[in-house]
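User: quick one, fold this
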Amino acid sequence: MTYDPNNVFARILRGEIPCKKVYEDEFVLAFHDINPLAPTHILVIPKGAYVSMNDFTAKASDAEIAALFRTVGRLAAEAGLAEDGWRMLANIGANGHQEVPHLHVHIFGGRKLGHMLPERSA
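Assistant:
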């Protein structure tokens, strides 16, 4: 998957599409998902043009990597999810069902989320 500079997250970063911002600094932007799948559903994206976690961890600076992961943890705590638990999810590539070619991390919480994947049949 190659980076498309006109993907929805790149357009949000450029201010072409509005978002309900939760947090922003020089490296990341976090906002509420427009189609939430849980009571809390926040997206955290790096401001750099990174397609996936593989791309991000290979090319991003240590400061960018730290900012992304610290922001995810801090926002989950600020949303009150730390005590009961929450899920962090990043879909990568076709088999991972990545729909937008810009790295994004989902924070889900506020209810029991169930299994990550369907249980295997015997």
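User: anything notable?
Assistant: The two ends are 34 Å apart (CA to CA).
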